[in-house]
């Protein structure tokens, strides 16, 4: 199943410097207010960018109606739509989707049905301010590009067998 509609807001995305360091997270939602969808059958995703001080709605991605039939082909479009996200929050997510998401560096997060997206964003910001937990710390580290000079010191030491 492909994307039927994609709405991107230009407000935050034009702030290049901020977007380079902001973290993107997605929420499986039918109303853009609550997490109320299973990942594989999600009608839409609300995608936000955030840091410790700021939250910005970035885009909404909408899909056609899907059945939870175990057909993994539908996951490709959904996972591709999450490019650049560090996490996706949903009511439930299947094992195959978990594996595919993790391969793309996206942490699946299972949330109680009806959880408020605003509350979840506030919790994430609070966690960033207080020191991120394990999955969030890993996700942040994965967004930092590897320093090409990280092996220079080892090279200067030489190599002996």
Under CATH at level 1, the class stands as Alpha Beta
Average predicted local confidence, pLDDT: 85
- Strand % is 25-35%
CATH homologous superfamily grouping: Dinitrogenase iron-molybdenum cofactor biosynthesis domain
Helix content estimate: 25-40%
Number of helices: 7
| Number of DSSP E strands | 8
The strand line-up of the biggest sheet is 1-5-4-2-6-7
Low-confidence stretches: none
> In whole angstroms, how far apart are the ends?
55 Å
CATH topology: Nucleotidyltransferase, domain 5
Rg over C-alpha atoms, rounded to the nearest angstrom: 18 Å
Domain count: the total is 1
Instruction: Note the main sheet.
Output: 6 strands, mixed
By CATH, the architecture is named: 2-Layer Sandwich
**What global shape is seen?**
globular
What structural class should be given to the helix and strand makeup? Answer: alpha/beta
Question: Secondary-structure element sequence?
Answer: EHHEEEEHEHEEHHH
Q: What kind of assembly state do the chains in view correspond to?
A: single chain
Pfam families: Nitro_FeMo-Co (PF02579)
Family: Belongs to the NifX/NifY family.
Protein name: Nitrogen fixation protein NifX
InterPro entries: Di-Nase_FeMo-co_biosynth, DiNase_FeMo-co_biosyn_sf, NifX-like, NifX/NifY_domain
Short overview:
With 161 residues, the protein is an alpha/beta fold.
Written overview of the protein:
- By secondary structure, this protein is of the alpha/beta class.
- The chain has one domain (3-157): 2-Layer Sandwich (Nucleotidyltransferase, domain 5).
- Helix content is 36%, strand content 26%.
- It is built from seven helices and eight strands; from the N terminus they run E-H-H-E-E-E-E-H-E-H-E-E-H-H-H.
- It has helices spanning 10-13, 16-21, 73-81, 95-103, 117-130, 134-143, 152-157, and strands at 3-8, 23-28, 34-35, 44-50, 55-63, 85-90, 107-110, 115-116.
- Strands 1-5-4-2-6-7 form a six-stranded mixed beta sheet.
- The protein is globular.
- The mean pLDDT is 85.
């Amino acid at each position: 199943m492909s994307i039927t509609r994609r709405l991107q807001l230009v407000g935050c995305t034009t702030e290049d410097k901020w977007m380079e360091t902001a973290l993107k997270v997605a929420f499986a939602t039918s109303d853009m207010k609550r997490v109320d969808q299973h990942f594989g059958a999600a009608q839409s995703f609300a995608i936000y960018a955030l840091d410790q001080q700021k939250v910005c709605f970035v885009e909404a991605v909408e899909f056609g109606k899907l059945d939870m039939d175990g057909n993994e082909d539908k996951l490709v479009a959904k996972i591709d739509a999450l490019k650049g996200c560090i996490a996706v929050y949903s009511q439930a997510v299947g094992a195959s989707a978990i594996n595919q998401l993790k391969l793309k560096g996206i942490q699946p997060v299972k949330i109680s049905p009806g959880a408020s997206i605003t509350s979840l964003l506030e919790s994430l910001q609070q966690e960033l301010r207080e020191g991120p937990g394990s999955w969030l710390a890993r996700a942040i580290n994965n967004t930092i590009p590897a320093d090409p000079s990280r092996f220079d010191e080892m090279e200067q030491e030489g190599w002996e067998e």
